[in-house]
Amino acid sequence: MKNKIIILLIAVCAMSCNKFLDEMPDNRAELDSEVKLEQLMRSAYPGSNWFAVAEFTSDNIDECPHWFRETDPFYEELFFWKESQTPDNESPGAIWEHHYGMIATANNVLQAIDLMGGPTTPKLKAIQGEALVVRAYGHFILVNIFCQHYSPDHAETDMGIPYITEPETTLNPMYDRGTVAEVYRKIEADLLEGLPLIDDAIYNQPKWRFNRQAAHTFASRFFLFYQKWEETIEHSTLALGSNPREFLRDNYLQASFPNNSPTTGMEYSRSGHKCNFLLATVASAMGVWAGAGYGYIERFSHTTMIAYWETIRARGPWGPWQDIPPSGNLPRHNTFIVNSLGFQGAMNRVMTGFFPYLFEVVDPVARTGYWRSVHVLLSAEEALLNRAEANVMRGRYGNALADINHWVGNTIRPPDGRPETAIIKTVLTQQDIIDWANSFEFYKPTVPTPKKELNPDFPLLTTQRNYMYLILHMRRHEFMHGGMRLFDLKRYGIEVERRMIAGTGNVPNEGNPDPIVISLYEPKLIAEKRSPKLVIQIPPDVISAGMPKNPTELLPTSPYTGQIAVPILNH
Known about the structure:
- The strands form six sheets. A three-stranded antiparallel beta sheet has the order 2-9-8. Strands 11-12-14 form a three-stranded antiparallel beta sheet, with no helix packed on it.
- The radius of gyration is 24 Å and the shape is globular.
- Helix 15 crosses helix 16 (462-478).
- It has helices at residues 34-41, 51-57, 73-79, 92-115, 122-146, 180-194, 212-225, 229-240, 251-255, 262-268, 286-289, 304-309, 380-393, 397-411, 430-438, 462-478, 484-491, 540-544; strands spanning 62-63, 276-283, 300-301, 323-324, 333-334, 341-344, 348-351, 358-363, 368-379, 496-497, 499-502, 516-520, 526-527, 564-568.
- By secondary structure, the protein is α+β, with helices and mostly antiparallel strands.
- The model is unreliable at 1-28, 510-515 and 559-571 (pLDDT under 50).
- The protein has 18 helices and 14 strands.
């Protein structure tokens, strides 16, 4: 129904006419037992994800004009911050429907538990806890994609999203969007009620459900975004225990798989890894953009320009990115234990390869079907970096440095005796962080660096800023291609300006004489702090049904003309 606000996907929530509201419309089983409720909760996880929408909206992407053959309007809308009109399995509409779908499932389970007399058994208590955390997570993703980021200065007036706590029983229900502050308060209430009830014993495959480590890591993210630093530290610690390194990824094992092979993504997202707290199989093209199918969506790319000067190949306080060939008995040495995959010629792209490429065949004769991938939704590395940031905000720099060094020691390859590797550090001091931050000028679109100006809605001391330049750099590396960067841009008020990168992926610091040219759009295309451009518009069907849309900014008409070409001569 085109004029209906599409929120819930469960059939019981939408009857065709009022006379059926008091009776079951078909022969589906009633939710009247632990077994049925637990089985229903298995379906309470979204089949679509927000990674692509957030990633292509962020500053991890440039436009490559020599790949204008790519005309997919979905990615063009995201990159140019237009309202999305193109149907796609990863579109804002899909995010909206799938996350409200998981909320609907949770609400039906919670209602059924109430009708059964409440959570009277340990298993019912665990199911109730999972349903509450699922409901909180669904609303959390929606409010951070479709609204401004939480800020004490603005949250009481910024538009939120409908917080649904009951199954739908009427046709065409109308919902109030409320405010961001109201949504956050309700998420907190659901989390605090649900977390103590989570019990991993009820799960056959805990990595695909909100197990305790996943739930506490989600809580650490929520409280980090809520600027409740002590709660962030508490929940990160509950997820990681007393020895965080026990749960971090085995990067040497990951590096043993070729990064241009489908096995790389499959290994990264394997449920057997302690670091992977929550996984989801979703309809997604990320496996063919940032994984083994790396020949897709060439026009919009994580370019060598971004990689070498800002992200996964930029100089860190641990040293410069190096790729030293084998010598004698010594193997190839990359600065990072798990090296990135670069294309410098046919494509202008550097990727991690961490997203598996799966294909669901629908018609074996026509060889058609759906792209799918497995996404790591919550991980030990996130819990660690959340805690490091919260400790910085509390001025506990020693604790923050300890967590930073857990990550560095697990991610950076130590020196191997060759002189070139001697400069690599796997243990940092506070002075290393300060010196690294001070070694860069602030980022400019034509002279990029990893250091971008921070303008959050909370005060930052000089030392806190230096730590946050690094932690945001580490987060950009850890969550590359996974969309988290958009949230960090919004949290820290980081300005983004769109640009075009001419030529292929050759880079000056490798001695290539060909200049790399950055072109800025004219008129400029910039998203400042709290810009509506970084807030994804709610789906068109929802707007047409009467829900207030997000504020918008007038964008220049496309295509852009009059580009300003600025060559990069040094770094």
